[in-house]
Amino acid sequence: MVNNGETTVTVAGLRVVRGDEVALDELNLRLFAGEVTGLLGPSGCGKSTLMRSLVGVQRVQRGSIDVLDVPAGAGPNRSRVGYVTQSPSVYGNLTVAENLQFFAAVLGAPGTNVKRVLTQVDLAEYADALVNRLSGGQRNRVSLAVALLGEPVVLILDEPTVGLDPVLRRDLWALFHQLAAAGATVVVSSHVMDEAERCDRLLLMRDGAIIADDTPAGLLATTGTSDIEAAFLHLVQQAQVTTGVRS
Q1: How far apart are CA 227 and CA 246, in angstroms?
Q2: Is 70 helix (H, G, I), strand (E, B) or coil?
Q3: How would you list the strands of the sheet with 62-67, edge to edge?
Q4: Which of 56, 144, 160, 132 is nearest to 100 (CA)?
Q5: 112: how many CB neighbours lie within 10 A of its CB?
Q6: What is the pLDDT of residue 239?
Q7: Element of type H or E holding 107
Q8: How many Å apart are CA 28 and CA 41, to the nearest integer?
Q9: Containing H/E element for 140?
Q10: Which contiguous run of DSSP H or E holds residue 36?
Q11: How high is the pLDDT of residue 242?
């Protein structure tokens, strides 16, 4: 897919093996500034493994990953790459504000950023609440707030909207697009196909491979389908016919 934005992430020949299974098989990929890229596919297809690889916390067997012109996980990217895992990665025995103040110090981010990110993730009224007394969706938002503290240039979000009500999901997607409009590269994984239309670009994954890379409209036009789930099923069936991929 053609994109006029600056390339921020380049993946070449990436192979990851976990246990006896090939989790990612010879992936080649570029990500761009100013774009919200949706990484979609069923659970176990390799989305989280790819995201960990982009951040530099996944052991890889072969290939290269460059993020902002340095290898994934390199020191210069500590504050330039934000990462939100599926499980909250904050301290339950601290308040929301205390968590953010701690991580701001770790990242070398200004303390004034704490108030900003609290507002961005709609948690200002919970600043003094202990994290372990929050709901699962609220804890996920604290993790997102931590990722935003350093004003990241690349933001990797693994299932960030799980457990959220429709209004908050809408607001967070609006935030993702605001960040992209300001020049960030935003990658959002999901197994919920109805979130696909919120993305500028879609990467559909299955069995450790990217089976489609297109805009939502382009994907529907190419497959002749009316929604992303139908498009995904069409591509899976096509792969079975042409390559014998298992169902």
Answers
A1: 23
A2: strand
A3: 21-32, 7-18, 62-67, 70-71
A4: 144
A5: 8
A6: 72
A7: helix 96-107
A8: 17
A9: helix 136-148
A10: strand 35-40
A11: 63
Structure tokens at 102: 């701690």
Closest CA to 146 of 118, 173, 166: 118
Find where tokens 């916390």 sit: 57
At 101, which helix (H) or strand (E)? helix 96-107
Q: Could you say which residues of the chain have pLDDT below 50?
A: 1-2, 245-247
Return the DSSP state at 51.
H
| Cα angle, residue 85 at apex, residues 94 and 111 outer, rounded to 5° | 45
Pairing of strands 35-40, 209-214: unpaired
Look at the block and give the residue holding tokens 């089976």: 211
Task: Write the single-letter amino acid at 158.
Answer: D
Degrees, nearest 5: CA angle 235-47-52: 155
Classify each residue of 144-167 as buried b or exposed e, where b means 16 or more C-beta atoms within 10 Å of its C-beta. bbbbbbbbbbbbbbbbbbeebeee
Q: Please state, in angstroms and rounded to a whole number, the distance separating the CA atoms of residues 21 and 68.
A: 30
Buried (b) or exposed (e) across 22-31, using 16+ Cβ within 10 A? bbbeebebeb
> pLDDT, tens digit, for every residue of 141-197?
999 999 999 889 999 999 888 878 888 888 899 999 999 999 999 999 987 777 888
Inter-residue contact 38 to 193 (CB < 8 Å) = no
The string of DSSP letters for 190-212 reads ES-GGGGGG-SEEEEEETTEEEE
Handedness of CA 79, 84, 90, 95 (dihedral sign): positive
- The rounded distance, in Å, linking the Cα atoms of 206 and 54 is 18
